């Protein structure tokens, strides 16, 4: 039988009796509008129930969990990923690998409803999205399981850092960072919605058509003129709104798509680096190698050798 947490007006604590019995180390930072928890679980367990009265963003830092959410198959929850826990949603969690030597570590940011509402209302009033029928909102549980973007990871890190300080103005600084975190979370969900499921929204979202065109014409010269025309926007508006909704520019998205395809092609043992660069739309080999190293931390050649090792 699952336990339940009833939330105070300002903060949404995550503590549950059974979860506490498994957690050897829990660090809590309670600030205005949110509570930040770092959990370490040192014992293997299965089907640990957790239900919250408010929304929380959880992020895996170390180890592995298996998550059971209503209406979907169980999935591994790994470092570099986040799960949005909706109000009243029952989770059941397995800790298959947790031990004293290799604890499972998870970060949870429980956010007061008024904080979320204020940020969402501000965005919808001042910075509306491209489609009026799809306003800013945190989508849960449909897009609850996310791969963290670099921007979301960076903002989480800064929120942890400011929460740990003893500065007298840390509530103010944390409040600004929390607002950014909510924006980054919504942008991350928007990327998952449109970048990975664009075919579903071709007739209802102008950026879905743009994303589809980019994916189908990666090797071609993809001009902003062409893409903005597909979105029925001026170049300036297209560039500005695309970045606002997804947290990166159209050019940055094209580069990331090309590099992602390059990584896939480099797995082929007979594919050369130069050939792969051309096939994904980079006519300049040096530019391709520099971008690849910037994003992946190693050159295409080193990446290919690593795959073969």
Automatic annotation (TrEMBL):
InterPro entries: AraC_XylS_family_regulators, Homeodomain-like_sf, HTH_AraC, HTH_AraC-typ_CS, Tscrpt_reg_AraC-type_HTH, Tscrpt_reg_HTH_AraC_N. Coiled coil: none annotated. Keywords: DNA-binding, Transcription, Transcription regulation. The keyword Transcription applies. Residues 208-306 form the HTH araC/xylS-type domain. The keyword DNA-binding applies. This is AraC family transcriptional regulator.
């Amino acid at each position: 039988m699952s336990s339940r947490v009833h939330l105070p007006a300002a903060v949404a604590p995550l503590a549950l009796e059974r979860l506490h019995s498994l957690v050897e180390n829990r660090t809590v930072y309670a600030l205005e509008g949110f509570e930040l928890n770092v959990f370490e679980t040192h014992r293997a367990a299965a089907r640990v129930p957790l239900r919250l009265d408010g929304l929380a963003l959880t992020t895996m830092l170390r180890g592995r969990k298996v998550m059971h959410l209503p209406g979907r198959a169980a999935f591994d929850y790994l470092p570099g990923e986040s799960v949005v826990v909706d109000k009243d949603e029952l989770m059941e969690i397995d800790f298959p690998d947790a031990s004293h030597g290799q604890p499972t570590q998870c970060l949870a940011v429980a956010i007061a409803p008024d904080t979320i509402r204020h940020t969402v209302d501000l965005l919808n009033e001042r910075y509306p999205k491209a489609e009026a029928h799809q306003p800013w909102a945190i989508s849960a549980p449909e897009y609850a399981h996310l791969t963290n973007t670099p921007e979301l990871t960076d903002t989480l890190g800064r929120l942890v850092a400011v929460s740990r300080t003893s500065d007298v103005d840390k509530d103010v600084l944390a409040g600004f960072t929390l607002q950014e975190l909510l924006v980054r979370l919504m942008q991350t969900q928007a990327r998952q919605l449109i970048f990975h499921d664009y075919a579903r929204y071709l007739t209802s979202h102008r950026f879905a058509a743009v994303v589809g065109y980019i994916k189908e014409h990666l090797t071609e010269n993809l001009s902003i003129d062409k893409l903005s025309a597909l979105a029925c926007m001026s170049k300036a508006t297209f560039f500005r709104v695309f970045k606002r909704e997804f947290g990166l520019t159209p050019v940055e998205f094209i580069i990331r798509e090309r590099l992602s395809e390059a990584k896939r092609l480099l797995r082929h043992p007979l594919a050369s680096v130069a050939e792969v660069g051309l096939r994904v739309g980079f006519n300049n080999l040096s530019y391709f190698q520099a971008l690849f190293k910037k994003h992946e931390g190693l050159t295409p050649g080193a990446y290919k050798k690593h795959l073969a090792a």
